[in-house]
Specification:
alpha+beta; 4 strands; binds zinc ion
Length: 93
């Protein structure tokens, strides 16, 4: 797969969707990015243009975090760190 040149929907700049990135995106079954890296990192920092983030409180450590999905009521939610810890624990066991 060759590197792709993609127009950013936000700043109209053309950015490179590299072969390596393409593989990651296809593996995770994600749609191709629509914004250049700069706009994507800006978005991640401000979080203002991300209406699909939900605030939650970690069931394990009590930390406030934001998750990209709606936490289910009555079900324990974990912050990123605890989630990863529980995942690696599962993998070990
Ligand atoms: Zn951009
Ligand atoms: Zn936690």
């Amino acid at each position: 797969m060759p590197d792709l040149e993609m127009p950013c929907v936000q700043c109209k700049d053309v950015f490179l969707f590299t072969e390596k990135e393409q593989q990651i995106f296809y593996q995770r079954n994600m749609p191709p990015p629509q914004r250049c890296l700069r706009c994507r990192s800006k978005k991640a920092v401000s979080g203002e243009n991300a209406p699909t983030r939900f605030e939650m409180v970690c069931d394990n450590c009590g930390r406030h975090d934001h998750v990209p999905f709606q936490p289910k009521v009555g079900r324990s939610v974990l912050c990123k760190d605890c989630f990863q810890a529980s995942k690696s624990r599962l993998r070990v066991a």
